[in-house]
Write a structure and sequence with these properties.
Length: about 240
Amino acid sequence: MSISRLLVVDDDSEMRMMMTQFLQRQGFIALGAQSMAEIATAMDAGRIDLILLDVMLGDESGIEICARLRREQDVPIIMVSALSADHQRMAGYEVGADDYIAKPFNPELLVARVRAVLARARRSASLVHRRRTQTFRFAGWRYDAKRDEVISPEGFQVALSRRETMLLQALLANPFIPLTRDEIAAALDVTGEGAEEAQGRAIDVLVGRLRSKIEKSPKDPQMLRTERGVGYVFAVDVTTEET
């Protein structure tokens, strides 16, 4: 289960930090950028599921950037701007923006719009590929999503609980990306099930159980590693096959 990775593009450093921190508290991975060059760097560095793009970026135009991105990418884009007249909104939609939010905005509304655009993007992908499933391969292991089977390098099936399987899915979708306990909890949809400290301990226990099943030496894990001061990282290459 993939944790959505958002890119907040704004040349106002204070606004950019405020938005990224808020989105991170909502369970997203939120990164920042302030120019087309930084957008390109972020997209080359890893998957981006949605871009929040300010219309006015110093010497650059968010409208022109949106048009360029749309020619090269199909990533969902939400325009964010203090310009809220109808013709200004239409300019964003005409270059391919998926939504347009006027500043100042209610943060809860922003999250609702982000989730709605992500859901539409996933539904569209699902309609096109609904009969296709993926097989994930990592360090000799294989996870068959269609059959929900985990096969060891020796060819043995390893039984995982539903929650262990959900954790593995989140890790497979985010290789080499350090994930906080809160981000993992959001991916497993267990936010709000208790105090933050208790929830963090529950994630640690779950990680320990998964390690005991997929690591050669659970006390010295080579795949599901602890990232000190952050949480956990799945430190292994993951490849996928459509079946």
